[in-house]
Here is the input.
Amino acid sequence: MQEISSRRYVVQRIGFGVLVLAALLVVLPILLVVGAIILKGIGAINWEFLTTMPRDGMKAGGIFPAIVGTLLLTLGAALAAIPFGVGGAIYLSEYARDTWLTRAIRLAIVNLAGIPSVVYGLFGLGLFVLFLRFGTSILAGSLTLAIMTLPIIISTSEEALRAVPMEFRTVSASLGGTRWQGIRNIVLPQALPGIITGVILGLLRAGGETAPILFTVAAFFLPRLPQSPFDQTMALPYHLYVISTQVPGMPLQVQYGTALALLALVLSLNVVATVIRSYFRRRRQW
Amino acid sequence: MGNITVEHLNFYYGSKQALSDVSIEIPEQQITALIGPSGCGKSTFLRCLNRMNDTIKGTRIEGRILLDGQDIYASGANVVDLRRRVGMVFQRPNLFPQSVFDNVAFGPRVLGMYRNGDLADAVEASLRGADLWDEVKDKLRQDALSFSLGQQQRLCIARVIAVKPQVILMDEPCSALDPITTLKIEDLMRELAHDYTIVIVTHNMQQAARVSDITAMMMLADAPVDAPVDASVDAPAGHLKTGTIIEVGETKRIFTRPTDQRTEDYVTGRYG
Here is the structure.
């Protein structure tokens, strides 16, 4: 009797150990990546690096235009993707009935999320740069990133809307509110933290992408700030790719410094999203 | 105002008939109680009166419901306006996660009833109407969900009377409350009956006896032979039991001298 039960505990201990190991394996790469980049890149980071133009064939000077470019592209993607994404989510969650059209839309969203980012880049080149004649420009790049972000925004927003109890809609209707008034006044405010989180997570992915901006906007070397949406711009991910692979004799510290800047930008957005989510989750009472 | 006439009402969830041949006269400014065992269609019937069943897919209705002589299911009838005139209090308090003020002001706001200054007066009047003003007048900006369940349910009542309805439907409004709080709500209902027609669904027979003027006994029964049977319904007619009102009368009489044996069994507790 005792023999058997002690064996059960040994089995449990082994199993438990394996599970902990599996969980730790997830943490390990992020610690190593972030750690290595910080250690090797922090020396390059200073005010001049962040706020001046690159010089000397990018081997010296700063990465200011790339930072500004990435911020502009992310902002542009947000402006284009948020109205369509949130609007689509509201339609799917609140209005759409289960018809072939709705099913087709959902299928499209799932597939959109699965398309490789380089394909988005070629699509953006074909549609925005060439067909719509936006040229390689911030406009074309932002729209390409927006399309790539849409499925994330739609599915997280829809989930947030569906999490709001049905009852609120019923009560709103019972007080003489129209469906839209119920959505606008009750459902949307309740779902907002979830929607914001989804939007930030989507944009954060867009901001770090290289392939979609490769053909649509990114400039190899452009040591000035863009003047209009139809200008090209440098961007951090592409700049990192360029200085890591295309420029011989590039100081390693500049490469790591650029990687650190990109990482910091993306991770700080991530932190903002997490804070918003946990703040509202604590306040939620239903 | 607020007089309801129901004529030969049949109600279907898809192909399943839930109510058959329900007819009742609900007089204005009185309290009508619907009693009967679980699953007999009391709530379904109540929700026909403000067309809340419309929000459920596949529901269908036959017969007529007249509010002050006008068919609320007539084509072209304004559902949103109907729901303003026929308010509803639900089983559990279901306030919005907002302040007391915003909850009570919700209806008037979406209906565009007042300018801003008058809105505050209207909220106060509604809270007074629900006997709640003295308890919450200093806490109007406080989160409504921080109050006790009984206060929350009275807040729900205040929220309903803020849209100036003629009828208030109450679907087991006290089932989540303790006996003391229940009595408070019942007192409130008696007061409200001076101004509003009230229809209440209750499982609590003492409550029906204490509070109502008219009592309607509902029960699952075989559909009467002469009830209109829809050809598109799959179920064999008369086979399935459907909910119907088997007896209506003055509350005192229903509880002392019911004419239907089933009513007598139910109100004396022999039902089962």
Q: What stands out?
A: Confidence is low (pLDDT under 50) at residues 231-238 of chain B. Strands of chain B lie at 4-13, 16-26, 31-35, 59-67, 70-71, 86-89, 167-171, 197-201, 214-222, 241-250.
